[in-house]
Specification:
- The structure is a single chain.
- With about 375 residues, the protein is an alpha/beta fold.
- About 40% of the residues lie in helices and about 15% in strands.
- The chain contains 14 helices and 13 strands.
- The chain has helices at about 5-10, 20-25, 45-55, 70-80, 90-100, 115-125, 140-145, 170-180, 195, 240-245, 255-265, 270-290, 310-325, 345-370, and strands at about 35, 85-90, 110, 130-135, 155-160, 185-190, 215-220, 230-235, 295, 305, 325, 330, 340-345.
- The strands form 3 sheets. Strands 2-8-7-6-5-3-4 form a 7-stranded mixed β-sheet, sandwiched between helices. Strands 9-10-13-12 form a 4-stranded antiparallel β-sheet, covered by helices on one side. Strands 1-11 form a two-stranded parallel ribbon.
- Strand 6, helix 9 (about 195) and strand 7 form a beta-alpha-beta unit.
- Helix 12 runs parallel beside helix 14 (about 345-370).
- The chain is globular and about 60 Å long.
- The termini are far apart.
- Bound molecules: pyridoxal-5'-phosphate (PLP).
- Pyridoxal-5'-phosphate binds near residues 190 and 219.
- The site of pyridoxal-5'-phosphate (PLP) has 14 residues, from helix 5.
């Protein structure tokens, strides 16, 4: 028998939102709405789809490992130098490269409880000791995170806005935090939901900082609608990006992701529609949750975190929603035991979801109020 290292045996694999096909297979349901993975309800950027169609016959070629055209397109768009950018198969992929490039065994990592589970999976995969700082009223507790730093700390991971809480910290809070970070500690600022948050006063855009110990992550999975293609990128000072190139797989992201991303980055109309639809859907959800008396965390992203009376209530609620064809995302696995997340949808998807949530929540609350254990 092959020996499996203990930290690998103990790993808990990443738990994604349930795929539509799986629910259909499991429960024989045909009408299904998935609002579980913070995807773009409008589908992919049309410009990206067109670029993919136009480049299908180039699939026999390897991609350019320097991603020259793509990196230059991103640099031009963000007003950065090309040497400050590296692209990978989603920002999830970048997380593992950051841990590989900037930490070794016995180094320590700090992050929050109740943040992006992809970070936990990657940190554990490499057997790094992680400190998980509790959330403060569903916000990342930047003060407590800074207080946790010791001489072994190498990396701090922050998602802003945070997934799954949807909360954000402000420019002012970030600057105070960074003033407390020693220069041997790398701060990873994951801005997967940046475009949804940019219009809020006080929002901190990590790209406005050029610090020696900061890496900003962006993805095309959310607002650009390219989650299935796998493309994200990191922006940092050149000396950090150079190291990431050494550890990354040379041919990721794939060729179609390159051409699609270049086209999507220019698809302003699609971005605009995406943000507009998100606003409408979240507004509708908020008013329905208020009517029903469902507690939720105010959001700066494309989803709401609902807070139900108990973990059992979440399990029942989720199961009943699944039975009716609605896929949501319970978040008990990352420490928010009574939380379940729902992302924005099209008008029809939103109405479908609000109808089911209304029925399921009301009937479970009746039982709950009658003292039936949930
Ligand atoms: C905070 C955060 N970072 C990264 C990701 C993953 O992005 P990608 O699809 O680029 O791997 C997600 C996806 O849910 C996320 O919420």
């Amino acid at each position: 028998m092959i020996h499996i290292p203990e930290h690998v045996q103990n790993l808990i694999p990443y738990k994604a939102g349930k795929p539509i096909e799986e629910l259909s297979r499991e429960r024989g349901i045909t009408q299904i709405v998935k609002l579980a993975s913070n995807e773009n309800p409008l589908g992919p950027s049309p410009k990206a789809v067109e670029a993919i169609r136009n480049n299908l016959l180039k699939l026999h070629r390897y991609t350019d490992p320097s991603a020259y055209t793509l990196v230059n397109a991103i640099a031009g768009k963000l007003k950065k130098r090309p040497g400050q950018i590296v692209t990978c198969s989603g920002s999830d992929s970048l997380l593992q490269y950051i841990i590989t490039a900037f930490s070794i065994e016995n180094d320590e990592i700090i992050t929050s409880e109740g943040t992006f589970s992809g970070w936990y999976v990657n940190a554990n995969k490499y057997g790094r000791k992680s400190h998980y700082v509790p959330l403060k009223n569903y916000h990342l507790n930047l003060d407590a995170i800074a207080d946790t730093i010791n001489s072994k700390t190498r990396i701090i991971y922050l998602a802003n806005p945070n997934n799954p809480t949807g909360t954000m910290f402000t420019k002012h809070e970030f600057e105070i935090f960074m003033s407390r970070i020693p220069d041997y500690v790398l701060v990873v600022l994951d801005e997967a939901y940046t475009i949804y948050a940019q219009s809020y006063p006080g929002y901190i855009d990590g790209l406005n900082y050029d610090l020696e110990n900061l890496i900003v992550l962006r993805t095309l999975s959310k607002t650009y609608g390219l989650a299935g293609l796998r493309i994200g990128f990191a922006v940092a000072q050149e000396y950090l990006i150079t190291e990431l190139y050494k550890v990354k797989l040379p041919f990721e992201p794939n060729y179609l992701a390159h051409v699609a991303a270049i086209a999507a980055l220019d698809d302003e109309e699609f971005l605009h529609k995406t943000v507009h639809l998100n606003d409408l859907s979240l507004k509708r959800m908020k008013s329905r949750f208020d009517e029903l008396g469902i507690e939720y965390v105010p959001t700066y992203a494309n989803f709401y975190l609902l807070l139900l009376p108990s973990e059992n209530f979440v399990n029942e609620f989720n199961n009943e929603c699944l039975n009716r064809g609605l896929i949501l995302r319970p978040v008990n696995t990352i420490g928010i035991k009574n939380g379940i997340r729902i992302n924005s949808g099209t008008k029809d998807e939103t109405e479908f979801a609000m109808d089911i949530i209304g029925k399921v929540y009301s009937s479970l609350m009746e039982k709950y109020n009658a003292g039936i254990e949930l």
